[in-house]
Amino acid sequence: MSEDLKKQYEKALSKGIHFADSMPAFEVWFLLHFAMPEQFYSSQDGVIKELRKYIPYYEKDQKWLSSVNLYTTLKPHFDEAMKKAAELDKKKEDTGNENTTISHVYKLFEELWKETKK
């Protein structure tokens, strides 16, 4: 992450804006439903290759995402994905390493649950 982007990110966080980001790609969130990333992925290609071990037919395109019931595939593993994503986040905090694979999508779900309990 560039220094300028990092400053903008920190500024947004300080104003209460949160992100459901996944680095290096959104597929990290999908992968967490099946496995804990054991390495730093520098690009989406590595994440997608790993994801295809669990969803062999995965394609990163609108046509595929629209034609497949991804929800049905991921739902049975949702709780595990939430735990693994939080573990990755803690690992990043503990090490201070910016070059780590993460997914903050779980934070979005946590916030949604809080809202439904009001």
Please describe the structure with a list of short key phrases separated by commas or semicolons.
single chain; 118 residues; mainly alpha; two-stranded antiparallel ribbon; 7 helices; globular
Describe it for me?
- By secondary structure, the chain is mainly α.
- It has one domain.
- It contains 7 helices and 2 strands.
- The chain has helices spanning 3-14, 27-31, 44-51, 62-67, 70-74, 78-95, 105-116; strands spanning 22-23, 102-103.
- Strands 1-2 form a two-stranded antiparallel ribbon.
- The radius of gyration is 15 Å and the shape is globular.
- The model has no long low-confidence stretch (mean pLDDT 89).
Q: Note the run of SSEs as H and E.
A: HEHHHHHEH
Overall strand count:
2
* Sequence of strands across the biggest β-sheet: 1-2
Number of domains: 1
For the largest beta-sheet, the strand count, sense and barrel status come to:
2 strands, antiparallel
Tell me roughly what share of residues is in helical segments.
Answer: 55-70%
Fraction in beta strands: under 5%
Distance between the termini: 36 Å
- So what's the overall shape? globular
Radius of gyration: 15 Å
Low-confidence stretches: none
Number of helices: 7
Mean pLDDT across all amino acids: 89
The chain-level structural class is mainly alpha
Short description:
The chain has 118 residues and is mainly alpha-helical.
Helix and strand arrangement:
Layout: H1 3-14, E1 22-23, H2 27-31, H3 44-51, H4 62-67, H5 70-74, H6 78-95, E2 102-103, H7 105-116
Antiparallel strand pairs: 1-2
